[in-house]
Specification:
Length: about 130
C-alpha cells in the first residue's frame, strides 16, 4: 500500500483546493454568460429580480457556489497541516489554473503578458514549495 507523508498529502490537497476553486470560477462564468444571453435575447421589460432569479436558479452558478464550499473545506484541511507561508502561495495557482481553464473551456484568449505572468506565478509557487 502506498504511504504518503503528511506534508505531501497536504500539498496535494492544496493543489486540489485551487483546482476545485478554478472549476468553480469556470462554472460561475459560464452560468453568468448563460443568464446574460437570456437577458440580451429578451431585453424588453425584464425586472431586476428576474435576473437575480435566473442567476440563483442556474445550475452552473449553483454548482460553482457548491464547489466554492467544497474548496473552503479542503482549504481548512490544508491550513491545519501546513504553515500558512507554504499553503497560501498555492492561492496564486488559482490564477494560473483559472486562466488556463478559461482559455481551454470558454475560448478566452490569453495575451503574451498573461502567459508570462502565469509562468512567473507558477515559478514563484514552485520556489516557495521547494523551500
Amino acid at each position: 500500500m502506498l504511504s504518503l507523508e503528511p506534508r505531501t498529502v497536504a500539498l496535494w490537497a492544496a493543489l486540489l483546493t485551487v483546482t476545485v476553486t478554478a472549476v468553480g470560477q469556470i462554472c460561475l462564468k459560464h452560468g453568468v454568460n448563460l443568464v446574460q444571453f437570456y437577458r440580451v435575447a429578451q431585453p424588453a421589460e425584464r425586472a431586476p429580480w428576474e435576473s437575480v432569479w435566473a442567476l440563483g436558479t442556474n445550475p452552473f452558478v449553483l454548482g460553482g457556489i457548491g464547489l466554492y464550499g467544497a474548496s473552503t473545506l479542503l482549504w481548512i484541511f490544508v491550513l491545519s497541516r501546513l504553515p500558512l507561508s507554504q499553503a497560501y502561495p498555492f492561492v496564486g495557482l488559482s490564477i494560473v489554473i483559472t486562466s488556463v481553464f478559461g482559455a481551454l473551456l470558454l475560448g478566452e484568449r490569453l495575451s503574451p503578458g498573461q502567459v508570462l505572468g502565469i509562468v512567473m506565478v507558477s515559478a514563484g509557487v514552485l520556489l516557495v514549495v521547494k523551500a
